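User: What would this chain look like folded?
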Amino acid sequence: MINKISLYMMIMLCIVVAGCSINDSSASSIEDVVRIGYQKNGPLIILKSLGTLEERLKENGYKVEWNEFQAGPALVEALNAGSIDFGRTGNSPPIFAQAADAPFVTIAAGKSKFKGSGILVPEDSEITSIKDLKGKQVSFAKGSSSHYLIVKALESEGLNYTDITPVFLSPGDARIAFEQGKTDAMVVWDPFTSSTEVNMNATLLVNGEGFTTDRDFFIANEVFAEKHEDLIAVILEEIENSSVWANNHHEALIDTLAPILKIDKESIKMAVERRVYGVDSLNENIIKEQQEIADTFFRLDIIPKKIDVKDVMDRQ
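Assistant: Here's the prediction, encoded as structure tokens.
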């Protein structure tokens, strides 16, 4: 009997040890992969295409796993769920995430890209100024940088948000509605702006100048940011390096982006030539920009509570 019990205990011990070994191996494999979320129209697609981050992180014993997202809100949700470690989004998704008490940290910002964001009207439109938008149907993505842009543009001419009829559509659906004449104006960002200008001969009524900087933001899972400052430093350095390459190699960049985005080269060329890629450290001006967006969305009841954007910004 003693021998049988001893044998049973030894078997159980082996199973437990084996299980621990399997779990440790799994944890190690996850730890050795940096999971990055990107969108096709963002700066991280350039970094991904160049392949330089893989080389740098390999030196640190890490692999890179790229995860594509169609929009910023889904990327932020994945970040907060722990499905990815690092990502890039526009200026509005982090505000919604913070308002929902999601745990994340904003690491750095991209350069302003206001020239490629704006309000478009058809070529033969009677709308020739922002004031002419009163009573019109204007499409844009709800809670996006375009949502903020239209609010600020209207206010600059003494109009209210309620003076237009908002039509909440994604950029792709907004383009279709615009082409079919179902909306009077469309607020969007590049390369959707440039594509509509080039292929529909649409008029860019105003761009974002004076209304929004329309920056990118680089964000990280809170736990990952605390554990891996060294890796984040490498990622940011390579984003900056790829940005320098992009700014100085427009033809190669256009050749790279056109097939990925499935947009004609002329449209990509317009978008590329009116944008500067790069990384900015978080500073008081950038914080002020984000706080104004957050306050505007709260005032319009788009987010449920007032927030202080500094609470999720890493300014070290």
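The mean pLDDT is 89. If you want, I can go into more detail on any region.
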